[in-house]
Prior knowledge:
Layout: H1 4-17, H2 27-38, H3 41-45, H4 47-68, H5 78-83, H6 92-106, E1 113-115, H7 116-127, H8 136-140, E2 147-149, H9 150-162
Antiparallel strand pairs: 1-2
Amino acid sequence: MASEFQRNKIQAMFQAFDTDDDGRLDEADFDALAARWHELPRVAAEPELAARVDTVVLGWWRDLSAAADTNGDGNVDLDEILAMVDRLPDMRDAVTATADALFDAVDENADHRISRAEHQRLVDTWHGRSTATGDVFTHLDQDGDGHLSRPEFATLWTQFWISDDPTDPGNLTCGPLPATPRPPDPA
Length: 187
């Protein structure tokens, strides 16, 4: 069962993926998400990378709908996604595999590192709009070298999807998370 922290994180992901804001995810939302990734310069310039991105993003839909569309209506709502949160740690290999394609997509200059500016493009692409990130990159860049290496990014990406620990820096991989609502004080 998803914790309040995971619920908050997954809800933010859900809103980013729900491109038509209808409160459910379907294949068209993932087609639109793939189209956003195609706007990145390196993806637009490299057909092989564009195909990899499509395989990953559209694969998310296939895997998600197969695992979470419990009522078979061709849509996945937030509750259906939250019901499968406990299965994410068992999907670690699939989660890590997507990190590789997305790393290449945002590594605009192909220097095998993600800079602060490239990370900002990842966040903006993820959300489909310009998104203020504040000091998020500083938290992600654990060694302080100004870049994220492929292994660093894979770790952060996996934390984003699997972690239930609010202190894990990977929770910020796709930008700042909305504040987790606090229960009212019993007065």
